Input
Amino acid sequence: MPMKKKTATRKVKRVVLQAKPKAPRITYATLAVTPQDDEAYDAAVANVRGQLGKHFTNFINGEACPATSGEMAHASPVDTRLIVSYFPRGTREDTRAAIKAARDAYKNWSAMDYRARIKVLRKAADLIVERRFDLSAWMAFEVGKTRAESLAEVNEAAELIRYYCERMEFHKGFTLPLEAPGKGQETVSVLRPYGVWAVIAPWNFPMALATGMSAGALVAGNTVVFKPSSDSPVLGYEIYRALADAGLPPGAYNLVVGPGAQVGDELQNNPGVDGLVFTGSKEVGMQVYHQFAKNYPKPAIAEMGGKNPAIVTASADLDEAAEGVMRAAFGFDGQKCSACSRVYVDNTVKEKFLDLLVEYTQNRVMVGDPSRKETFMGPVINQGAVDTYARAADQARRDGGKFLYGGNLLKEGEFEHGYFVEPAIVELPSAHSLFQEELFVPFLVVAGVDSFDEALKLANDNEYGLCAGIYSRQANELQAFLDNIEAGVTYVNRRAGATTGAWPGVNSFGGWKGSGSTGKSGLGPYYVQQFMREQSRWVVKPGR
Ligand code: NAD
Output
């Protein structure tokens, strides 16, 4: 029976937390790049190309800290002959100095009225928007992200700051009077910052995720030592620059680029760090999570990987499903934690769905230089990702997988010096190990199923629990999906992306099971509170 829209989910009162934007904005769902944006972006690419190969420094206590232990060169995944940047190979000593600077700056930053902190952070958001074209161009060279996806990500970074500021205002700085216990007495619940936070970020959303984690910590009154990924240090530096230019006091935010084994290790072991927020792989995240708190509990927020399923039922709008799966599987080369990497499709519609999926992939997924307007998929991030792709393709071939699309490395012509691969769609039995492992490359596995129940069971049969999507016109299936799927982020009948495309204040983003440690999502209404601890105050007023 076709579903009536309103019965798909239980009715909830909608709380609009953000003012409606006046013009269509560039988000992961709209990817609405205008001709004016194109012109500005092209000019920015030329500008940034002229700056490639610059030497950068770390920043501790507001001061530039040149290399003491050599530099790290980062080559562009688009063309490895291009060195994007040189950064100091940050050391344990640098990290300790940054932690001390953050401790020293904490007293003043935390004592500021929250409205004053918000003012500085909003200025940083404005600067990020002002610099959006250059930042997006850096993103093309540094991590290979396409024009529309980068412009959306830079916007998201600014909106994350604004949203977390808005949450702080909405809760009036998280000071809440409680029931008065008696005459002349008052009790208050106050959320207060912890102190110094370490922010450890991945390369795949080098602006948005690093900015979001940093803004959460800062707006709450903490100070920060920020370690970006060594694959995206320039964008890490740009976040630092926006905050410093906005007027953040020296030491409140410190940038230390360097190896995880030194800088990251010091951050998780140094007793001067009071809280740690990490986004990255499950392997590193779980290690950090276990390691961080030793003598007493300390907050460790770890957002980790995903192996995100889409379910396509017999009643699905197959065109909608095919486009949604294609966009979620191959947007930014499947290198999103939210990427759709496995599909369970009802056998009665499998053939038709796969035909449409292949057609969408063939027609839309143009591989090439990410700065070109028509490119849908740029390169993958590095040789390790190419090797992962090749290994998965070999494994699928060896085990009789049916390649419906792609499966090869691209090495000729313009691809010769970059890390380019084809989008791959492979049909395999649902018990195959490629349905379990997060590959983080454009490699989609598909299995036929005989029922919705089988699809739901298989979708949950995974250590991860980040995103999940469904296409169905049956209200009972949709409700069963929402009630039983083990995932922090869910999508129903979404053409813009089967499992991708969250947005601050619109769609919270956080994982369950092996995908996240706290059950409170980024981009959402409960995020900022995680950077604060409650102090309960009972005051008997003098002279009552
Ligand atoms: P990664 O785990 O390799 O690295 C993440 C960060 O940890 C980097 O800054 C890295 O230098 C640092 N690091 C590495 N070793 C460390 C150590 N021993 N101690 C402390 N820090 C260390 O992940 P990545 O390759 O940068 O990013 C891809 C992964 O991130 C994927 O698994 C993806 O699913 C996940 N991810 C998750 C989310 C989410 O919101 N859940 C978002 C984006 C990416």
Residues 200-205, 209, 227, 229-230, 260-261, 264-265, 268, 279-281, 284, 288, 303-306, 337, 438, 440, 466, 511, 515 surround nicotinamide-adenine-dinucleotide (CB under 6 Å). The longest strand covers residues 185-193. The first helix runs from residue 35 to 49. Residues 1-10, 15-23 have pLDDT under 50 and may be disordered.
